[in-house]
Amino acid sequence: MKINTFRAFKSRNYRLYFGGQSVSLIGTWMQKTAVSWVVFSLTHSTFMLGVSLFASQFPSFLLSLWGGVVSDRYNRYKVLLATQVASMIQASALTLLIFLSHYNVWEILGLSVVLGTINAFDVPARQALVYEMINDKDDLPNALALNSSMVNLSRIIGPGIAGFVLEYAGDGFCFMSNALSFIAVIGSLLMMKLPPYQPKARTKNAFGELKEGLSYVKKTPSIGFVVLMIGLVSLFVLPYNTLIPYFARIVFKGNATTFGVIDSAIGFGAFIGALYLASLKTGSNLKLVLAINTLILGAGLVLFSHQHIYLIALLFAMITGFGMMSQNAISNTLIQTIVEPSMRGRVISLYVTVFFGMQPLGGLLVGSVSKLIGTPDTILLEGIAGVIIGLIHYRYLRKEKLKSRQNVMAHEEAEVQAQKT
Fold first, then answer.
1. Highest mean pLDDT among 49-58, 157-166, 179-188
2. Which residues, in sequence order, are CB contacts of 332 under 8 Å at separation 6+?
3. CB within 10 Å: which end of the chain, N or C, has fewer?
C-alpha cells in the first residue's frame, strides 16, 4: 500500500480525531448490533427491525437541516463536544435500563429516538470540522476516505465483539462498552489545538440561513445529483441491513455470534473498499467509481438473497459491503470538495437529511414488504433496485461526458470562426 494512502495523518488534529473516533465507533457498532438483536429477540418481527431503524434515524431526517444551521452559526468544535457528551449519556441510560432488567421494546426504541436527535446535530458539525482539522486542504479527500475505513474497520470489529458479548456476557455489557468508549473521543477533542473561533456576522436569522443553503444546492446541479442518488440508494437499497438478524437466526439457524459474523463480513468488505478509495490518485473520477460500486452493491445483494451456504453467503456479504461503502464515502467527498466553506454545514446537513431520512422510511418499507413476500425476496428486490440505480447513474455520466465534449467542440469551433473573421 502506498504511503499516500495515509497522507492526512500529517495533521496532528486529524490524528487525534481518528484515534478517538476509532475507539468510539467500535462501541457504537456494538450498541447497534445489540439493539437489533434485542429488538428481534423480543418481537421475532422483521417489521420491528424496520421500526428500530426508523426510530434511530428519522429524527435526523427531521432535524439535520437545523443541525447544519447550528454548525454554520456556532463553534463547530463546541457543538461536537456537546453531542459526544450527550451520546455518552444516552448510552449510559440504555446500559442502566438493561441492567435493571425491567424493559420492553418501546423503551429501547425511545432511547433510539434520543440518539437520532443527537446525531442530527452531531453529524453536520463532525463532518464539517474535519475540514478544519486538515492542514493541507488537498488531503481532504484522503481524510474522508480514511474516515470511511475507520467506520468500516469498526464495523468489522464491533459486531464481532458484540456477538460474542451478547452470547456470553449479555446485552447490557455491549451498551456499557459503548458508553465507556466515548471517553476516548471526548479526550481526543480536548487535546486538539484548533485555530481560535472567529464568530461570523449574521445578516439572516436561522430560517433565512436554512433557506439560503437550500437555494445554494438548487443552483449547484453537481451537488443536487449526488444528493438525489444517495437518496434513492438510501430508500431502496441500504435498509437491507435491518433484515440481517433474520438470516442469522432463521436461514443459517445461528445465534448472536452468527449475526455478528455476517455484520463483520459486510464491514470487512466495506473496509477493503475504503482502503481502495484512500489509495486512489488525486483527480480520479469518483463519480464513475460511485456508479460502478452501486452496481456491485446491487449484485452482492442479489447473490446473497437466496444463498443457503453460510461461507458463500459471507463472501457475498463482503461484496455487498464493498459496494455499500462508496455510497457514503464518495458522496460525502464529492460534496465536500465542491461546496463553498461558508455553506459547508448546511449542505452537509441536507446530505445527512437525505441519507438518514430515506433509510428509516426504507426500513419501514422493506419491513412491510418482507411480511408480504418473505425476507429473501425482499433482499433480492433491493439488489435489483441497486443495479437499476447504478445503471441510471452510469447513463447520466455518459450523457454528462457527451455534453461536455460537445461544449468543448462548440467552443473550439467558435474560436476558429473568430480567427477567420
1. 179-188
2. 127, 144, 348, 351
3. C
Q: For position 383, what pLDDT does the model report? A: 95
Burial category of 381 from C-beta neighbours within 10 Å (exposed 0-12, middle 13-18, buried 19 and up): buried
**pLDDT band, very low/low/confident/very high, at 1 (cuts 50, 70, 90):** very low
Closest CA to 306 of 218, 220, 234, 378: 378
On the 0-12 / 13-18 / 19+ scale of CB atoms within 10 A, 251 is middle
Place of cell 430515506: 358
CA dist., res. 135 & res. 308, Å (int): 49
Tens of pLDDT, residues 353-401: 787 778 778 888 888 898 899 999 999 999 999 999 999 988 888 887 7
The stretches of 306-374 forming alpha helices (DSSP H) are: 310-338, 344-373
Cell numbers linked to 20? 478517538
pLDDT single digits (tens) 195-204: 777 666 565 5
Domains of the chain, CATH where assigned: 8-192+213-420 (1.20.1250.20)
Give the least confident one: 173-187, 355-369, 401-415: 401-415
Residue 418, burial from CB neighbour count under 10 angstroms (0-12, 13-18, 19+): exposed
**CA torsion, ordered 16, 18, 19, 24, to nearest 10 deg:** 120
